[in-house]
Write a structure and sequence with these properties.
Conotoxin, Four Helix Bundle (Hemerythrin (Met), subunit A), about 100 residues, mainly alpha, single chain, 5 helices
């Protein structure tokens, strides 16, 4: 059974998560990356802080953070491979890998 609410509009891309529809994914990744650039050689110590700091300006709860897939990827590789290479590798990761 389908229903249409008067005055509503369908989502332009219904398969995208809320984060992806509203551009918050790129906001989160960009702000996290910018923050990490302020800690050269110590990114592996600050990636969770930067991730949580990026959440609120991008429309998410700062306690929960945003784009966890990117954060976990950064945490796994940044110390060994450096920030720029790791960012380029991780920026296409799903934000919530366990959700579709």
């Amino acid at each position: 059974m389908a229903a249409t609410v008067v005055g509503s509009t369908p989502l332009e891309e219904p398969d995208l998560s809320r984060m992806e529809r509203y551009g918050s994914r790129s906001c989160c990744i960009n702000l996290t990356y910018q923050c990490l650039q302020g800690f050269p050689g110590q990114e592996h110590l600050h990636y969770t802080l930067c991730h949580h700091d990026a959440a609120a300006p991008c429309g998410f709860d700062s306690d929960l953070g945003c784009c966890n897939g990117y954060m976990y990827c950064i945490g796994m590789f940044v110390e060994q491979h450096g920030l720029e290479d790791t960012h380029n590798h991780c920026k296409t990761r799903l934000c919530n890998p366990n959700r579709r």
